[in-house]
Amino acid sequence: MSTEHKIVDLDPAEAKARLDRGEAVLVDVREPYEYGAERIPGALLYPLVTFDPKAFPAMWGDRMVILQCGTGRRSGMAAQRMIEAGAGTVHHVKGGLNAWKEAKLPILGLNPTTGVIEPKSYG
């Protein structure tokens, strides 16, 4: 019996719903400076330049891993690496952080005045 290997695009609302239900872990594959400037709440940083699918912790158990970047390009590359390493279905946020922001979903960002990471508004 063979395992199907595929990459599934999730729209930002579906990704957020899965995160809110505790069904998934969000992994941001952007660079540290990008993550430091703004990010999705709860996202874990694992930059594409050091991304190793075999290093994912077993503690995530049955939770789905959702990959995310700025536009969906790098998370798609990371997803392909996971497929090549033997993963079955791999999920990523279609359109990345840009699509997340277009959907007006919550993000955290660096306040340039205080240097504090805080919720960003869409003014």
From TrEMBL:
Entries under Pfam families matching the protein: Rhodanese
Location of the Rhodanese domain: 20-109
Keyword Acyltransferase: no
Organism domain of life: Bacteria
Keywords per UniProt: Plasmid
UniProt-listed CDD domains: RHOD (cd00158)
PANTHER family in alphabetical order: FAD-DEPENDENT OXIDOREDUCTASE, NITRIC OXIDE REDUCTASE FLRD-NAD(+) REDUCTASE
Name assigned to this protein: Rhodanese domain-containing protein
Species in which this protein is naturally found: Azospirillum lipoferum (strain 4B)
